[in-house]
Design brief:
With 165 residues, the chain is mainly α. It is built from five helices and two strands, in the order H-H-H-H-E-E-H. The structure holds zinc ion (ZN).
Length: 165
């Protein structure tokens, strides 16, 4: 089982069927943090570390991309997914200038949209495979894609909480 050294998340693939619920829950916690109007959401604590609003935009985009990837994997055999361009999007989509109220709403919707697609996977669909390019190029099951996405949201929830504590 893979484990994230930084946040301690464990990749337990047997938990994939609960991933949608876990993602909605963790995204709602990120949304709660980003709803604090008194909080400094826009300042980068270090030049190379995203601000809370940038993390929120990143998570929204992750959830939208993952939704499309899972939908693709249902109709295409062994698709290969290019990286989402996590760094480029910060500039291309102007993360730093976005309104936290919009991001909260969009993040919440993105989590619900992705969870809906996961909820419609049949038992055999979870074993469909994709080539995934992060953190290394490897063939992964949709179980892994779902659990990896739970990790993304939880990991960055920790990032924004640390910045605002
Ligand atoms: Zn982690």
């Amino acid at each position: 089982m893979d484990r994230c050294e930084e946040c301690g998340f464990e990749y337990d693939l047997t938990r994939a069927p609960t991933a949608g619920t876990a993602i909605v829950q963790a995204a709602s916690e990120v949304a709660a943090v980003l709803s604090d109007e008194a909080a400094d959401l826009r300042t980068r604590r270090q030049p190379e570390t995203w601000s809370p609003i940038e993390y929120g935009c990143h998570l929204r985009d992750v959830l939208l991309v993952q939704r499309e990837r899972v939908l693709t994997a249902r109709r295409v055999d062994r698709p290969c997914f290019e990286p989402m361009g996590r760094e480029e999007r910060v500039e291309h989509d102007g993360y730093a200038g976005q309104d936290p109220r919009d991001v909260v709403r969009q993040l919440t919707d993105a989590a619900g949209l992705f969870a809906n697609v996961l909820s419609r996977l049949r038992p055999e669909d979870w074993e469909r495979t994709v080539t995934y390019r992060y953190p290394t190029t490897a063939e992964r099951s949709l179980r892994w894609v779902a659990v990896h996405t739970v990790h993304e949201v939880r990991h960055h929830l920790g990032d924004v909480r640390r910045q605002l504590s």
